[in-house]
């Protein structure tokens, strides 16, 4: 969830059901090339190798090529590619993007393969995100709840302990920032709206809820505003991150010592502990000093956090739909999904939860994932993200703007899109 740099989808303009009819007949077992779009670097190399080797072993003469995409501008590229004559065969999308493509007919209907792909063992929230009008189009790929990572020595030096409530978490962040001038007690760049959702939800608020056939945006409700005021308290009092910055590469500040705590997806642990000579250098020497816990809720326990992660589907215009479905079956197999679990990403199957291990990260993931929530389930939600409404809102919140007025303006923009 994931990091989503989105440009306008324009609802379903470029992806009509007629324009996305299947582009090929029966699959050719020999000589076919299956193109798989995976986004970002979250899928480990071991999983990629497993997919390629298994597919090519099961389909002699055919090849599978992984084409890595970036999150920035992904929706625009998919809108163009999935409606064209040179469509990739299997594509990853962020879970909040899935409904935009399923409702537009961009994906092959996978309903008949539901049981073969995992059936009721699949993460239910992601199955819902990948379904439309009673049919199943995009399977879960992986999930990852947000956790709090912190420097144990900084917390101890300030005389603080792991917080039990959201208020204690905020107070700890402010205390760490005060005790360490120039450093973030909680690193929070202004555009990062994913980490703001728990504050809204924990105060009883919502982003938007169904109201008959329309949507009612609720960021300006008293409950949501209470959460937004807490967000502003953290952004102005505990964070030294750029007020207009985004949430990419959170490991950098942790490794250079300017970030003492941060909330990020579970897989960030492996970015922090990556080799120091990597392209995006980590700090494996900090492993013993790296602490982690689930963001606490208002009344204790784990807070409701955004369920980041991805769905994956087969292009409706794949030239080799049967081979593409076979590739998808490998991706949803226990062997492939176990590699995700062993690398800190929540597998697509409930039965593989134990692959996450038993360390404190695994325990924190289990606590956070049990309370995770998704964004409003509207096919037009991707258009809300594309418009940058939430990014703009929280940049203004970080800069000290009037929370009530900002929330009211954001509600008007959200409703205008969702109800158009």
What's the arrangement of secondary structure elements?
Layout: E1 33-39, H1 45-58, E2 63-69, H2 74-82, E3 90-94, H3 98-102, H4 124-129, E4 131-132, E5 135-136, E6 138-151, H5 152-157, H6 166-179, H7 197-202, E7 208-211, E8 214-217, H8 222-237, H9 251-256, E9 261-265, H10 268-272, E10 290-293, E11 307-314, H11 321-331, H12 334-342, E12 346-347, H13 360-369, H14 381-386, H15 389-398, H16 403-418
Parallel strand pairs: 1-2, 1-3
Antiparallel strand pairs: 3-11, 4-5, 6-9, 6-10, 6-11, 6-12, 7-8
Helix pairs in contact: 1-12, 6-8, 15-16
Structure description:
The protein is α+β, with helices and mostly antiparallel strands and 420 residues long. Helix content is 35%, strand content 15%. The chain has helices at 45-58, 74-82, 98-102, 124-129, 152-157, 166-179, 197-202, 222-237, 251-256, 268-272, 321-331, 334-342, 360-369, 381-386, 389-398, 403-418, and strands at 33-39, 63-69, 90-94, 131-132, 135-136, 138-151, 208-211, 214-217, 261-265, 290-293, 307-314, 346-347. The strands form three sheets. Strands 1, 2, 3, 6, 9, 10, 11 and 12 form an eight-stranded mixed beta sheet that branches. A two-stranded antiparallel sheet has the order 4-5. Strands 7-8 form a two-stranded antiparallel sheet. Strand 4 (131-132) and strand 5 (135-136) form a beta hairpin. The longest helix is centred in the middle third of the chain and has 16 residues, at 222-237.
